Amino acid sequence: MELEARNALPEHWLQKLCAQLSRAQSVKMVQAILDGFDGLHSDNQVESVLRQLLDTTEHKHLLELVLAYGSWSQRLSAWLLKSFPKHCNLVDEFYASLHSKILERLSNFLLLLPCTFDRETQLFLSEARFQVERTPHVLKSMINFAHGKTEVVADVDEADSRSSVIGKKQTRAHQKQARKMERQKISLKQQDLARLNVNDPQTKAEAFSNASSLLDTLRGTFRRYFGLLQKPEIYLATQNMFVGLVSTATYITPEAYPSIQPMAPALYFESASVFGEWRILISSRIDRYLREIRRSDSKLLKIVIKKIIELSKGQFSDDNQQRLNKPDVQFPVYEAKVTADTRLVYQIDCVPNYDGTCERQVIRIFCVYPRAMINEHLWDSMGYQLSKKGKIYCERCTFRKQPHHEGDHAIPPATFPLLEKDVSDTNNVPRLSEENRDEIHSLLVLEKFIALSKELLKSIVVDLDVTHVFDVSPEQKGIIEHQYSCCVLGRSGTGELLGVIKGSEQSLSHETRYLDLKTYKNLSVRTQHVFAKQRDQIYSIFLAYMNHKKQRGEDDTTDRTHRILKAFNATGIPGAKIDYLYVDEVQDNLLIDVMLLQSLCRNRNGLFWAGDTAQRIAIGSSFRFDDLTPFLYRLEQLQEQDKKGTTQPELQTFKLTTNYRSHGGIIQCAAAVIGLITHFWPYAIDSLKPEQAVVDGVMPIFFSGWNTETVHEQFLSGNSGKQIEFGARQCILVRDEAAKAKLQEQVGGGIGLILTLYESKGLEFDDVLLYNFFEDSTVNLNQWRVVLNLIEKPKEQDNPAPRFDEKRHAGVCSELQFLYVAITRSRKNLWIVDCSDKAEPMKMLWQSKGHTQSCGPGDKVPQLAASSTSEEWATTGYTLFTNRRYLQAKHAFERAGRAREAKISYTHHLRDTAHSIQPSNKETTSTKRKELCFAAESFLECARDSKGKQQRVFFHNAAECFENAGSCGDNMGDYQRAAEAYENAKEYTAAVRLYKKTEMFDEAVHIIQKHRQEVDEELANDVQEVATRFYSKKFRKAKTLIESVEEQPEYLEGTHLDETVQLRSSEKPNFQKPPTEGIRRVFFKNPDDVPSALSVGAQTANADSGSNSTVKTQGLGDTPTGTEQPVDQQVEQPAAILTDIVRKDLALRLLYHHRQRVRNKELEKYKTTTQKTCDSSFETCLKLVADPNEMQWTRGSYYKKLYLGLVPHLLACVKAVESYALSAWSEARDQSRKEKQDYDDMYRTKSEIIAILKESRKLGSRLDPSSEVHRKRDVEGLKQLACEVEQLVNRVPSGADLDVHFNLQLAMKGISNAGPERG
């Protein structure tokens, strides 16, 4: 009886534990509950606790919670490790053992835990998950092999097959398929064995040995899992999951929640513990709706969440599952009553389960609508569209299981065997009406759905903006979970000289890094399909291109890549390699670029290549996935030669054919273009099955028939003739920069977003207007007419379609790829505006296939422009900025009323513009430097308006621009400003590097002393050594000025003297010989007197005889006269010789001032005219202030500060305006002599210029440094003058590029704060 008592657990311990945790409002309360357990006295108790924790469904992750912390944690983990199977004869039981199940739980839990791990731990968790998943199957195979057994595969049960509505014949087919999948799942794969570090057994002994090794590995994984669980950051994150849980009975207020940790970047998360078996997928609309009512109506939020909880538990009452669409629609859509006037709309969906072993019913919630606003026709259309997925899909979604228990009304979700592919049924689906088309497209294609997890629910309740992972299709899920490197090939919305001669794989084996003529001519036809018969001509063009490039001293992208690869081969790859590499738009790269990118990744299973060769519009690219796959395989083979015993799994290619961006109308139009490419140029792009749309949609509209010169007035102006404005989700696409500039000149810049085809890559819009694509094409009409060959039933024409000629029609191929990119930017509407003859062939082809509709003069023109809110413009601005479309982002932010973001965008545009300038000669080099400095100054302005990390980023960008400007001619002034900006950005290594380059060693040493730990150690040591040599060199240079080595005085360069100074100890005999020309000699007794002597200058030599000064100087070229007393009688004897008393800090201080003066002289060369005028005015003011006969101001005069601080800037402004007026007058006079029209306008222009000139001269006289307003110290008068200067500057046209705005802003800011003169 005593033994039974010791083995017995407290009654209802698990229910009590769950009840206590449900009331926990903090992590401390959770810890107190876990610490309060009574001890476990026997192994039977331990096993019983583990089994109950494993089986409980009341609180998910309760097992992990108890294993991680508390009085039972160590006891439970120790028993699991102690009882872990050690011998092969226990392997048969391991598959279904407690240990196996807990391992499975922990592997998933830790991998998906919302906690930040270091890289090593992340790699371990990923690899351990693979071990836990595959080891049991491999173990079973090993034991079967050892015992001479064949593998026996149990049938996979079909869920609730007794009540399934699917027929018996179909059920057998599914069972057969399931058995086949199970055999595949447990069959051995060589890559699995290699990854598990075991060999394919050849004998029984090897099989047993492998089994023991695998068990040891799992035991080690188990031990490390427990170590991770019991780390503070892990158990705290686990305990946080049990704080403030929402219950069906009580809605906990947001204040009860602790701070929520950001979600980990994992794909799947557990459902909130209060939910039932039904998995809930909510749209982003629902997410926004719940957050909105959380702020406005917390009572309604409680009701909606309660309703969702009821649905998750299968409580499908009449109020909760009322059919919304008509009974004759094959697929039902439901509504659930929320309040008397509110309905929640949802569908029952059937999707693959997390582990991919079956399909499972889920609830997909679209939105919550006011009852009066529910459009039943819309949901009829929704039902028709969903029924297109096939009969089996519809049957699975409408099937309902029986409740688990008699009398229970809760319906559990059903599961089914995986269905490879259902037959789509479109026979009875009516065409979407125009009024419902956009909404259906938004809900089924553009809308993103999120699994309603505990983290998501918490973030809604506490109004925390957290990024959550979207639900994905089975195809996308397969790509995401693929554990090896792969390629993803799709069309849009799923997801050639240089390319061959210089950028191909073969170019790497040539010393010149490009193919010779013989090699080029021997390439296969597929390698360069378009010009396969003209390779001699192409190679001649290539040689001419190379010669032209050499003469201009320029490089192209292949030169860059080859140079980097050569450096990698010579010195290795600098820095640490990355673990995972994701490359999108890979088709815009060359194969040598792929080799470069692949070399940066240490993980051979961490490479992800995605793209669409139909969108290959990058100049010089001939990329194809058919070339990429074997190329990567050969690279891996070369790398594996150094890694014996390793094998690389075959690179898998995923092909996506479902479009998740555009509707069927746009996809069909684009598919016709793809059909042309693959028909005439079968090797141009990779082969894919035709793209499929999720929903139908309106056909693109082709506008033609108007006058080509005035067509823009028809579509880009309103009825009143005023310019229309496109919205934030609309875009006008043109061919190139020239076409964009022309259109902007015609319609103005405020019409909306205008992008070139290159700029539109990677972007998408609701509506796209493709403007004059064919008119601006370099391909002529006769070449475009080749597309007419694909019209199935052509009309009889006098001019039939030309026969295809590979050489003549080569340009059409690239044009079609550009056209495909343009079409696929659109989500909802595509409008093609082109009235040229060259547009007719494609228009005829599309219309013959029923892919476009026409609109001409006299037809009703649909409304094109759509209004947008400020928030929508801001969203578009951020999207454009992220995609580096900075000028368009500036426009979007201006429309959103966000001046700061517009300024930042424009600043980035300035940098891009500067980088695009090729410094091929002195003029372009100077222009590039000027533009870089302009961008740098703009970044500094952005930094002044920012804080924290963002401010440092702007300082960094400014520093980079200044540094690049410095490289345009090795300008030390630019390097200095770059160093200062790097220092402000707290990038001290870069700052020290540039301070060293400019020989600003004082600044460099100062940073090293203050931030030694943040400066590269090698650079810091080098700078200190070079600085020492630098100063020593200065001292050694002085020796050439000394009469003898024994008389070495210190030789220093003064800062404010503009001369070289020779310091002499007064202990030495008097010098009869005068100083060297240009050298001033200073005698001293004490080194502390030297600075004062230097500041006094040559006047010290003429000091009064009664002076007690211990320093005497000889001016330039002065010679002691006979009447002059000997030096040793004039100066007291020093206490020590010169070399003993001159201190290093004095030398450093003097050298610093000298170098500062040299730098100032250097910077003087780069000052603008306005800056020089300001400096000159300041010198004049300073002289007048110093002269007591001029400005008789009292000491400490307040006006003196205004006088010296503001007046020079105001005078600079006035002088700049005067210079503008003189120049403008001269230009206007010359113009009037050349042109004899517009006399009135010319007269007005001249009159305004004369008025500005007179006013500037008048203000200049009143502001003159010696004017009466200054002598009277008239602050109010100065304020009035400043206002008049501001008005004068504003009269100058904005295009005059007047460089005075900084001066004016500074002066106005200072004068606005000025008070009356004191004293």
Describe the model.
- The strands form 5 sheets. Strands 1, 2, 3, 4, 5, 6 and 7 form a 7-stranded mixed beta sheet that branches. Strands 16-15-17-18-14-19 form a 6-stranded parallel beta sheet. It has a 4-stranded parallel beta sheet with strand order 9-10-8-11, covered by helices on one side.
- It is built from 53 helices and 23 strands.
- The radius of gyration is 41 Å and the shape is globular.
- Helix 16 (376-387) crosses helix 18 and helix 34 (870-882) runs antiparallel to helix 35 (886-895).
- The longest helix has 28 residues, at 119-146.
- The protein has 1319 residues and is of the alpha/beta class.
- A hairpin with a 2-residue loop joins strand 3 and strand 4 (342-352).
- Residues 524-617 form the UvrD-like helicase ATP-binding domain.
- Residues 1098-1113 have a biased composition (Polar residues).
- This is UvrD-like helicase ATP-binding domain-containing protein.
Question: Based on helices, strands and strand pairing, what is the structural class?
Answer: alpha/beta
Whole-number average pLDDT?
Answer: 76
Task: Figure out the total of helices.
Answer: 53
Low-pLDDT runs: 1-5, 150-171, 176-187, 245-271, 1035-1059, 1096-1144
The amount of helix comes to 40-55%
**Biggest beta-sheet profile:** 7 strands, mixed
N-to-C span: 105 Å
* Range of strand content: 5-15%
Overall form: globular
Total E-strand runs: 23
Tell me the radius of gyration.
41 Å
